[in-house]
Structures are given as C-alpha cells and as structure tokens.
Design brief:
This protein has helices spanning 7-10, 23-34, 52-63, 78-82, 104-114, 136-147, 167-170, 183-197, 206-213, 217-230, 238-245, 250-262, 265-277, 282-301, 305-308, 315-325, 330-346, 353-365, 371-386, 404-409, 418-422, 429-442, 459-469, 516-519, 531-548, 550-559, 577-585, 588-599, 616-619, 628-632, 647-654, 682-690, and strands spanning 41-45, 93-97, 124-129, 153-159, 174-177, 560-566, 569-574, 605-610. By secondary structure, it is an alpha/beta fold. Strands 2-3-4-1-5 form a five-stranded parallel beta sheet, with helices on one face. A three-stranded mixed beta sheet has the order 6-7-8.
Length: 701
C-alpha cells in the first residue's frame, strides 16, 4: 500500500478560484485571460509557500485550454488533464529550477529550444522557478528573447527575491507580488481540509497551527500533516499541538502574567523553574509571553477586539484575557512588551539562557528600575490627578469636629454658583484635587442665614480677619475650604488700600450675581495647562536649562519665547532663522524636554519656529493674566471668601513684586579663565555648537 501524498500536494489548487488569500493577483489574471490580453512574460514574487508556482501552472493550463480564452481551465480537454494535479505533464510546459540551471550555458540552451513551435498546445510556456538564482550572464543571454519572443512563447518567472532579478528583465515583465495569507482565511481553509480528511481539530489547537505556519500555506499544511499523522482517535488536541510544536502552555502563561500583575516574584521565578525543568526553550517562552502581551495591549486599547475579530482566540481564553487586561495599564503593558522584546535579541547565542530569562523577569517586576517604569508611574498619577481626584490614601481626613467660633467668624458666602464659576482656575491637577477634597470636607458645615453681609474687602484682608478667629495652628489639622480666586501676581502690584468709607448697608442674603463669564477669564480645559501657565513657569524652566547646558540657556533667554501649546506639542518661537537652525542642529530640544519634565512633570514634543516679533525679555518674566486695574480693584463680595489659602500666597499678595534684571552670561567671566576646547578646530566648534557651516574661503595672501 502506497503512502498518501503530502497535504500540500494532494490539495494543490487547480483553478484561480481555489487559491486563497491572493485575490489581488488572481482576479486581474482571470480578467486578462478572459479578454485575451495576456502578456508574453510575468514575474511572480512573494514569500515561500504562498502560491507562486501553483498560479504559474494554472496560468499555463488556462493558456493552453482548448476553450480559451477562458478565465479558468475547463479541466476536460487533453491539455487540462495533462497539467492537472497528479497528471503526466505536458512537453509544451517546461518547469526549470534556476537554482541548478542558472548559468549562461543553460540560458543559451533555452534560447535555442525556445524558437521551436509547441507540439500539441497553443503556447510553449517556460516556468522558471527561483529566478533570482539566475546569474547576471544568464539573464543577459535571455534578455533579447524575453524582450521580443516568438508569438508562441510565454515566460513566467517565480522568485522570493525580486530585487535580485536584473532591472532589464524585470522591466519587460508584468510583476505580481504575492502576500502571506491572513490568519482568518488560513484557519477557515484548515477547517475545510480537516473536514475533508475526517479528522477533528480542536479550536484551541487551530491558532497554534496557523501561528506555526506564519502565513505560508505550504508550511501550515506541513505542520497540519505532522499533527494529523500523530493524532489519536480524539483528533488533533491542544496538548498534542503544544507538545509537538514546542509552544508554552496557556496555563504557564496565565500564571506568569497573573504574577506580574500582582508583583509576585516567588510565582514568577517558580514559572521559570517549571520551564527549565520541563526542558522547554526559554527563548520560546519569551516569544509566547510577548505574543500574550501583544494580545493584552490590543485588548486594552480596543475593548471590543474580541467581538470585532481583531483578536481570534477561543472563548475560554478570551475570558482570561479580559480579566488580565484589567490588571494592567497601557503604559505597564507596553513597558513589559519592550523589556521582553529587548530580551529576545539577547537570547541569540546566549550561553546562559535561564539567567537571561530571570533577568528579564526581574526587570518587569521592578517598575522603577528604568526610565520607562518611572514614566509609567508618573503617567498614572498625572492621569488620576487630571481627572480631579487623588488616591484615597493621600487625602488627609479630619476626624475632629470643626470649632463653632470659626463658623461664626467666617463671612458667609452667597449660595450661588457664580463664585464657583468665577474662581481662579487651579495651576496644577494636584491643586484642583486638593481643592475638591477641601470642598467635600467642608460641605456639611451649615451657615446661619441671619449673619449680616460684611463689606467687600480685598482677599488678603478677608484672610487676616478669618485668621484672627480661626483655631491656633498647633491644633489638629483640618481641611480648608476652597481657596480664594487669586490671580497671578503682577510685576508691580498696587499697595494695600483700605476700603473706601462708604455707608455700609446690609444687603439681602440672595442678591443677583454677575454672570460667571464676566468675572473670570477663560481657562484651559480641566486637568490641562495653557500657554499662559507655561509662560508663567518659563523662568523656572530656564533656570533648570542653565544647569543642564549653558549654550541652550543663552539662546533661549536672548532669542526665544513660548509661542503656543497644542496638546503634547510646545511651540517655541525664535527671532530669526539662524537661531532656529542653531537650536535644532545643536539638539537643544532634548534639554528643554528634560527641564519641562523636572519643573512641570510633562513629556512634550518641542517644535521651533521663526517669529521676528518675539520679545525674549517678556518671555523670561512672568506675565499677569489680567490688567493692572482689574488686579487692583477689590474683589466682588461673592469672590472674596477664599478661606484656607496657603500662607505663601497671602505673603506674596502683601509684598510688592520685583522683577529680577536679566543675568549677564559673561558676568562671572575672568580674563585668566582657561579656554575650553583649546585643541578643537574652530570650524568644528562652530558647527557643533551653533550649527554653522563654511560658505566660502577668502585667501588674504
């Protein structure tokens, strides 16, 4: 009894309709055959096992079919039967393996035989497989024949490396690139073959077979053929596929991922020990773990990926993936995937793979061991603070009841939403969170309605008046009420003025309030920063840059100004194109990013533009956010109730502001100072630090 043929030979397609995953190639070829517009030479390229040689044979059958021109061979005529699967073949369709027949002598022999007419078919077709193995001399010998062949001659070149085919040959052919077959189409095809073979294939084992084939139909059928040969009465099971293909079982991957989410080092290193003791390849475990992390990243970014088919996994595994995805944040998953991906490159040629695997797990377990781990933590905290809340363990809780005198001494605030709308926007997400926590803690305190309304006072007088009746500072800490709507301090604030001696008349409790939009300037979105905030903090940023790189500090303090903030992009305007080019060429944007990270805690992209109207002196000092007249005017009655402002704010509002003169960068220079880079070439120094380049040289001799 003869052994059956391999699956990829038994199920080789005989028509273009049976070729899967290559519709971008088969459809144009069928249209060309039906319209009798077939070219004299074709070039089929693509990965191995994707259908290049099979399509070439189908094209030859369709060309020599007795019912031509047809899009698909009829399968009934003599030519179609000779070229069918398992047929004897045709003398007019010649297949040549260029790997062993790629010399110039073989090309000359082909050229001499090509001029003879076909024996029993309409065309003589040459299928040259592995065409990239033909030598340049062989291609040059075929060049004239491929360019002007006789009417009965057709060429079909098949190759995996089309770039190695010389351009003169490639330009005289119609090039059709083949692609790897998508996993979905390949999985459906495997199910059809298993039904035809009468073998059961477990759904959990199907993704492993598709993954082992890597998109190649021939490789996938070879893997399936191996599994079918070793399958028992129950068919191809998941355990059989894992053992034969060498993949890591899902149980170990689930255990490892769960331990990473719980920071359980004992369980993680226990999984590593199980992998080594069972004889599995550590590199294969890292590859499987990276694949699992990829699924979690996709599921975290696209919650309905399992429903839309973006992830093709069995039902029980889908539930486990959903549970694991909720245990990590996007930054954590991407950081873990980066660590595993970097470790895979270290496994090549490693003499101690277990040690590398344990080091990889240790890096994952210690989030702050590298810069990416710190950034992941900062991102989580900033996101939580920008949403208006802080962790529960970071909010101080006041269990002591508030003293009664402080309630009576504090001037009551009108019960209206206008003061809240006109309050100053917080300068940071953390300040907004603390204000929200203070408002929540002070909400249960009721205010008596019969307390008369005091006259409007400046915010600092209200703070002093409340401070006199407040409990001593050494008492237990209490949560403060929302802070006053203080505005940024002007450069020269008005001195403290007592209230004008106007007759004080008691006003009704519920009086009309001005619209919120008239009492407060427009503020950036909640949890974000505006360009005004960045300009206010710009002097601090310049001080940090001064410590990092003096050249960048001099350039920004004398030639640059913050222009705009668009999402995650900070635009810096420089006075001329030379300053902008020097800023870009010297890599100063990296130092600006480091300074912004230290001062504000953000990671923005820096973009430099040219704006001749830039005033660098205005950029180096904080700018007031409102006119001076509006700053000097007393706050409205409903807005001067900022109880609980920090002492630093009250002190800054009492003292007049002072603007520090710009610092001279050469003030500390001395004639006896050593010269930096004495041995460096001046041209190299100017090019490296200022981005200059030599335009022309003048000979003064």
């Amino acid at each position: 009894m003869d052994a059956p043929l391999a699956l990829y030979r038994r199920y080789r397609p005989e028509t273009f309709a049976e070729v899967i995953g290559q519709e971008h190639v088969t459809d144009p070829l069928r249209h060309a055959l039906a319209a009798n517009r077939v070219n004299h030479a074709y070039l089929f390229s693509g990965p191995r096992g994707c259908g290049k040689t099979t399509s070439a044979r189908i094209l030859a059958r369709a060309l020599n079919c007795e019912q031509a021109p047809v899009s698909d061979p009829c399968g009934e005529c003599q030519s179609c039967r000779d070229l069918a699967r398992g047929g004897p073949g045709s003398v007019d369709v010649i297949e040549i393996d260029a790997a062993s027949h790629g010399g110039v002598d073989d090309a000359r022999d082909l050229r001499e035989r090509a001029f003879f007419a076909p024996i029993s078919s309409r065309y003589k077709v040459y299928i040259i497989d592995e065409a990239h193995m033909v030598s340049p001399q062989g291609f040059n010998a075929l060049l004239k024949l491929v360019e002007e062949p006789p009417p009965h001659l057709k060429f079909i070149f098949a190759t995996t490396e089309p770039d190695k085919v010389i351009g003169t040959i490639r330009s005289r052919t119609h090039h059709y690139p083949f692609r790897l077959v998508p996993p979905k189409a390949l999985g459906d095809y495997l199910n059809q073959l298993c039904e035809a073979e009468g073998v059961r294939l477990e759904p959990a084992a199907l993704p492993l077979v598709v993954r082992a084939g890597a998109g190649s139909v021939r490789d996938t059928l070879s893997v399936l053929d191996q599994l079918l040969g070793g399958a028992g009465p129950e068919g191809v099971t998941y355990d059989l596929a894992v053992q034969l293909l060498g993949y890591t079982p899902d149980s170990l991957l689930d255990e490892a991922v769960g331990a990473f989410g719980a920071s359980d080092g004992a369980t993680v290193f226990g999984v590593v020990d199980k992998i080594i003791e069972s004889g599995q390849d550590p590199r294969r475990f890292a590859e499987d773990l990276l694949q699992r992390l990829r699924d979690l990243v996709v599921l975290r970014a696209v919650p309905d990926a399992l429903v839309t088919g973006l992830l093709d996994v069995p039902g029980d595994r889908a539930e486990r993936l959903q549970g694991q995805a909720t245990s990590f944040g996007p930054a954590d998953l991407t950081r873990m995937a980066d660590i595993v991906n970097a470790a895979l490159t270290e496994f090549r040629g490693a003499t101690a793979p277990r040690l590398l695997l344990e080091l990889m797990c240790a890096r994952i377990l210690v989030p702050a061991s590298d810069a990416s781990g710190v950034v992941a933590r900062v991102d989580r905290l900033e996101k939580r603070l920008s949403m208006g809340g802080v962790p529960a363990d970071q909010v101080p809780v006041d269990t002591r009841p508030a003293p009664a005198p402080s309630v009576a001494a504090a001037p009551p605030a009108p019960q209206s939403s206008a003061p809240q709308a006109s309050a100053a926007q917080p300068s940071s997400p953390r300040e907004a969170a603390l204000r929200q926590a203070g408002a929540a803690a002070s909400a249960p305190v009721a205010e008596p309605d019969d307390v008369p309304e005091p006259p409007d006072l400046p915010p600092w007088d209200v703070e002093e008046q409340v401070g006199r009746s407040a409990p001593p500072e050494d008492a237990a800490p209490t949560l403060s009420a929302p802070e006053p709507p203080t505005q940024p301090q002007p450069q020269q604030p008005q001195p403290h003025q007592p209230p004008s001696p106007q007759p004080q008349t008691q006003q009704p409790r519920h009086r009309p309030e001005p619209p919120a939009q008239q009492s407060a300037p427009a503020a950036p979105a909640a949890g974000g920063m505006g360009v005004a905030d960045v300009r206010r903090l710009w002097p601090e940023v310049l001080e940090v840059i001064k410590g990092l790189r003096r050249f960048t500090w001099i350039m920004l303090s004398q030639n640059a100004q913050v222009q705009a903030l668009d999402g995650q992009t900070l635009t810096i305007a420089l006075v001329n194109a030379g300053a902008r080019d020097s800023f870009v060429a010297s890599g100063s944007a990296e130092y600006v990013q480091q300074a912004l990270q230290q001062v504000i805690g953000v990671q923005w992209r820096i973009e430099a533009i040219v704006d001749p109207s830039v005033d660098p002196r205005a950029a180096s000092t904080p700018q007031p956010s409102a006119p001076a007249a509006q700053q000097a005017a007393p706050a409205p009655s409903g807005q001067g109730r900022g109880v609980g402002a920090p002492e630093a704010v009250r002190q800054a509002m009492r003292e007049p502001g002072s603007v520090a003169p710009p610092e001279d960068p050469d003030l500390a220079a001395h004639p006896d100072d050593p010269v930096v880079d004495q041995g460096a070439d001046p041209e190299q120094l100017l090019s490296r630090e200022l981005g200059a380049r030599v335009i022309d040289e003048i000979d003064h001799g």
